[in-house]
TrEMBL record:
<keyword id="KW-0539">Nucleus</keyword>
<dbReference type="InterPro" id="IPR012340">
    <property type="entry name" value="NA-bd_OB-fold"/>
</dbReference>
<keyword id="KW-0804">Transcription</keyword>
<protein>
    <recommendedName>
        <fullName>DNA-directed RNA polymerase subunit</fullName>
    </recommendedName>
</protein>
<dbReference type="InterPro" id="IPR005576">
    <property type="entry name" value="Rpb7-like_N"/>
</dbReference>
<dbReference type="InterPro" id="IPR045113">
    <property type="entry name" value="Rpb7-like"/>
</dbReference>
<dbReference type="Pfam" id="PF03876">
    <property type="entry name" value="SHS2_Rpb7-N"/>
</dbReference>
<comment type="similarity">
    <text>Belongs to the eukaryotic RPB7/RPC8 RNA polymerase subunit family.</text>
</comment>
<dbReference type="GO" id="GO:0000428">
    <property type="term" value="C:DNA-directed RNA polymerase complex"/>
</dbReference>
<dbReference type="InterPro" id="IPR003029">
    <property type="entry name" value="S1_domain"/>
</dbReference>
<feature type="domain" description="S1 motif">
    <location>
        <begin position="78"/>
        <end position="149"/>
    </location>
</feature>
<comment type="function">
    <text>DNA-dependent RNA polymerase which catalyzes the transcription of DNA into RNA using the four ribonucleoside triphosphates as substrates.</text>
</comment>
<dbReference type="Pfam" id="PF00575">
    <property type="entry name" value="S1"/>
</dbReference>
<dbReference type="InterPro" id="IPR036898">
    <property type="entry name" value="RNA_pol_Rpb7-like_N_sf"/>
</dbReference>
<feature type="domain" description="RNA polymerase Rpb7-like N-terminal">
    <location>
        <begin position="8"/>
        <end position="63"/>
    </location>
</feature>
<keyword id="KW-0240">DNA-directed RNA polymerase</keyword>
Length: 249
């Protein structure tokens, strides 16, 4: 889930930057150091504004100036039991890995419906029911988070797709409204833009000229639509984190 969180951080400024515009330099360095990072409990997606900038304190021995800065940031914290939309990145006989924005999620074969089996002879290797379901790198999947593990500056999760409304997502061509899975719609030659439940982000994307960019998680997109619409974009690391990116026509 997304939250608007008030945080505080100490910022060091080199003596060569001392001058009239130190406030702007401190803010720029804060954005560079913080946006796109993981604290272990949540990801800092974007800094909205700063407040309570303290007076600089010269550190003995180095000459660096230390500032304490309060700032307001949009953070994303995944929870156990949360359902997220992800993109499969790799598949093996034990399960598959996927990314929901910056979060890496592993789904074990024990958490996959029994009718979906691993096919090592396929190219690429995939999980399939030999009918209409194929999970391979690039496939959109809806996953329920079952557990989280935090590390130094990173988070990992395990999930399942064995449940109602979980598993592979169908993507719809926005020109002919035809279900095209995760590939190109052959009838219109248009890349799939959004899932059927991505109306909010689809409307926003159409307005700014986004056509066939990288897939975007519908649940994540729904939460950030207002912010993205207001700001035009929401942070320098949005592309690296896998969230929507504002592009020109």
């Amino acid at each position: 889930m997304f939250f608007l969180h008030n945080l505080e951080r100490r910022v060091l400024l080199h003596p060569s930057y001392f001058g009239k515009n130190m406030t702007e330099l401190v803010t720029t360095k804060l954005v560079k150091d913080v946006e796109g990072t993981c604290t272990g409990d949540y990801y800092i997606i974007a800094i909205m504004d700063t407040f309570d900038l303290s007076e600089g304190r010269i550190l003995p021995g180095s000459g660096m100036a230390e500032f304490t800065v309060g700032y307001r940031a949009v953070v994303w914290r995944p929870f156990k039991g949360e359902v997220v939309d992800a993109i499969c990145t790799s598949v093996n006989q034990h399960g598959f890995f996927s990314n929901a924005g910056p979060l890496s999620i592993f789904v074990s074969t024990h958490s996959i419906p029994p009718d979906i089996q691993y096919d090592a002879n396929a190219t690429p290797p995939q999980f399939t029911n030999h009918s209409d379901i194929v999970i391979e790198p690039g496939t959109h999947v809806r996953i329920k988070i079952m557990g989280l593990r935090t590390g130094v500056g990173e988070m990992f999760a395990i999930g399942k797709i064995d449940g109602d409304y979980l598993g592979r997502e169908m993507v719809w061509c926005r020109k002919c409204t035809k279900a095209v899975g995760d590939r190109m719609c052959l009838r219109t030659g248009t890349a799939a833009l959004a899932t059927k439940k991505m109306t909010p982000i689809g409307t926003w994307a159409t307005r700014i000229g986004l056509t066939s960019q990288a897939p975007v998680s519908s649940l994540l997109a729904h939460n950030i639509t207002k912010l993205a619409t207001t700001e035009g974009c929401f942070g320098r690391h949005q592309r690296e984190l896998g969230f929507p990116v504002v592009v020109s026509k």
